[in-house]
């Protein structure tokens, strides 16, 4: 591992969620530092407990659901109050519920679109300019989406995931010839933090972290959808250009 890689930092948006914990784990295992966006000190403490240590992690408190939350974090980075970052991983998710369409309230609908779509959009909109300014060909921007956007067995997350698909394609197109390597990880099954995963018989966050580790390490994967459909996909990247 080069000194350059050791000094790199990954900004993780949604860092305390099932997928966010995977991203933090992957970044640390690949000898990178993490700038974790958290809601408050309680969320920071939760992440430390899940990871097992605070070593290599800097915390930035912000409301990612606000259209100024991530923008404020980037401003602090520019001012030198927070460490510079070369990679972004975003995975902010809402309810994983089977509520039928006729029973979804307006408040529930709007809340979930704010959490699962808008927060990820804000993360992209307000960090991509900073990455492009670096003119560093090693920079990456990664988002994790899910197969509910196609399957729709859970209507609420299905609608919000579906809305992310064209956004990721647009971002992939816009960065095809830039220095930022944009990719989407499309997850086809349930991943949870290790303790809950063992209880529920699903994939552990620490195992899913392998995918992001592989993606960070492979400069040939860009503007692509990386599919994770079964356990074999945790060991070798399966990807295809998004357009």
UniProtKB/TrEMBL annotation:
Source superkingdom: Eukaryota
InterPro entries: NAD(P)-bd_dom_sf, SDR_fam
Keyword Iron appears in the UniProt entry: no
One function term, GO molecular function aspect: oxidoreductase activity
UniProt signal peptide: none
Database matches in Pfam families: adh_short
Presence of keyword Oxidoreductase: yes
Keyword terms, alphabetized: Oxidoreductase
Entry-linked PANTHER family: 5-KETO-D-GLUCONATE 5-REDUCTASE (PTHR43669), ALCOHOL DEHYDROGENASE, PUTATIVE (AFU_ORTHOLOGUE AFUA_3G03445)-RELATED (PTHR43669:SF3)
Family: Belongs to the short-chain dehydrogenases/reductases (SDR) family.
Protein known as: NmrA-like domain-containing protein
Species the sequence originates in: Penicillium vulpinum
């Amino acid at each position: 591992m080069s000194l350059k890689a050791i000094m790199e930092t990954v900004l993780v948006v949604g860092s305390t969620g099932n997928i966010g914990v995977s991203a933090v784990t992957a970044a640390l295992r690949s000898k990178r530092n993490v700038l974790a966006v958290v809601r408050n000190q309680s969320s920071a403490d939760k992440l430390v407990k899940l990871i097992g240590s605070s070593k290599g992690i800097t915390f930035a408190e912000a409301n990612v659901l606000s259209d100024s939350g991530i923008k404020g974090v980037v401003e602090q980075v520019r001012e030198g109050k927070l460490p510079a970052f070369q990679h972004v991983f975003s995975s902010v998710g809402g309810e994983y519920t089977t509520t039928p369409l006729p029973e979804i309230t307006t408040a529930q609908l709007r809340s979930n679109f704010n959490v699962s779509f808008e927060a990820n959009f804000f993360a992209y909109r307000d960090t991509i300019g900073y990455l492009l300014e670096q003119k560093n060909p090693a920079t990456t921007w990664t988002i994790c989406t899910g197969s509910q956007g196609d399957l729709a067995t859970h209507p609420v997350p299905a609608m919000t995931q579906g809305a992310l698909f064209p956004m990721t394609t647009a971002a992939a197109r816009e960065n095809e010839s830039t220095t930022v390597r944009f990719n989407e990880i499309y997850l086809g099954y349930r991943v949870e933090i290790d303790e809950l995963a063992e209880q529920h018989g699903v994939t552990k966050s620490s195992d899913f972290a392998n995918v992001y580790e592989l993606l960070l390490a492979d400069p040939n994967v860009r503007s692509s959808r990386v599919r994770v459909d079964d356990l074999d996909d945790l060991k070798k990247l399966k990807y295809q250009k998004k357009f």
